Every structure is written in C-alpha cells, then in structure tokens.
C-alpha cells in the first residue's frame, strides 16, 4: 500500500515538474512575416517591384490563428525561392488597424490577398490553407 502511495506521489511530482519544462523547451515557429500598420502598409503593398501576400486577420478568430501558423511557414518557404528579394508575407491586425481594413475593402476574416505590380488591386486567395498550395499560387501569379 505504501509503495503505491509513493509511486503515485512520484508520478504526480514528475507531471508537475515536466509541464513547465515543456513550456520552456517549446519553440516558436520561425517566421519572416512582416507586421503591417498604417505607416508601412503602402510601402509594402504598393511599392515598386513588390510581391506582397497580405493576411488580414483579427486575434479573436480561431481560423485566423490557424492561418497565422500557415503564414509563418509560407514566409519561410518563400525565403528560399527565386522571388525572395521582392516577396513579402505580411499580416494586418484588423482590430488595431480598422482604417486599413476599410481602405482595402476587406469583408471578413481571415482574408488573404496577393499584391503584385501586375495585380496592384490584389488577388484574393480562396483556396485551401496548405503551404504548398500557397507557394504554387505565389509562383503562378508572380
């Protein structure tokens, strides 16, 4: 009986000690996503020779949270491609910058729009949220 009690206490202690360690060793995914605001939006979206894929989101949306992870992956995969010097994966927080949301006529969240010199008004992406499909979309319209 005493052995079971000690085993239970040991297991409980192990769980309590390992939980904070998981947080310490959990790494944030690498990202090159640029956070856009009212000051830098036009430079990135309408700048010459820019290819900017903007994710318009709000923090309270679970779908946006999932899209942000995919956006991090897209930013990293594109950093090794031919357009890495002109491509930007960007993010606009719709709660912080409603002026940008209104100006760009964003109707819902999340919205992903790709701006290029050929498509300055932007092309809305409505496909599946998969990094390889987003890479293909960027390649196709760049």
Can you characterise this structure?
- GO terms for molecular function: protein disulfide isomerase activity.
- It holds the Pfam family Thioredoxin.
- Residues 33-129 form the Thioredoxin domain.
- It comes from Leptomonas seymouri.
- The chain has one domain (34-140): 3-Layer(aba) Sandwich (Glutaredoxin).
- The chain has a five-stranded mixed beta sheet with strand order 1-3-2-4-5.
- The longest helix has 24 residues, at 2-25.
- It has helices at residues 2-25, 41-45, 62-78, 98-103, 131-140; strands spanning 34-36, 51-57, 87-93, 111-115, 123-125.
- By secondary structure, the chain is of the alpha/beta class.
Largest sheet: 5 strands, mixed
Q: What's the Cα radius of gyration?
A: 21 Å
Structure class: alpha/beta
Q: Could you say which overall geometry the principal axes of the C-alpha atoms support?
A: globular
**Helix coverage percent:** 40-55%
| Average pLDDT rating | 84
Distance between the termini: 70 Å
Looking at CATH, the homologous superfamily is Glutaredoxin
Strand order of the largest sheet: 1-3-2-4-5
Report the CATH topology name.
Glutaredoxin
Number of helices: 5
Number of strands: 5
Q: Please indicate the percent range of residues in DSSP E strands (runs of 2 or more).
A: 15-25%
CATH top-level class: Alpha Beta
Order of helices and strands: HEHEHEHEEH
CATH-derived architecture: 3-Layer(aba) Sandwich
Q: Estimate nothing, just give the exact number of structural domains.
A: 1
Which segments are poorly predicted (pLDDT under 50) over 5 or more consecutive residues? 6-27
GO molecular function: protein disulfide isomerase activity
InterPro entries: PDI, Thioredoxin-like_sf, Thioredoxin_domain
Protein name: Thioredoxin domain-containing protein
Pfam families: Thioredoxin
């Amino acid at each position: 009986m005493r052995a079971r009690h000690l085993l239970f206490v040991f297991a409980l202690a192990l769980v309590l000690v390992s939980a904070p360690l998981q947080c310490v060793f959990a790494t944030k995914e690498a990202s090159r996503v640029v956070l856009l605001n009212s000051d830098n939006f036009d430079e990135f979206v309408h700048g010459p020779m820019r290819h900017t894929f903007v994710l318009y989101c709000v923090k309270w949306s679970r779908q946006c949270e999932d899209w942000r992870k995919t956006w991090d992956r897209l930013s990293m995969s594109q950093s090794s491609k031919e357009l890495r010097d002109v491509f930007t994966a960007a993010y606009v927080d719709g709660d912080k910058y409603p002026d940008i949301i209104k100006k760009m006529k964003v109707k819902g969240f999340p919205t992903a729009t790709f701006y290029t010199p050929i498509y300055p008004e932007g092309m809305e992406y409505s496909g599946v949220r998969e990094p390889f499909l987003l890479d293909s979309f960027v390649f196709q319209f760049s």
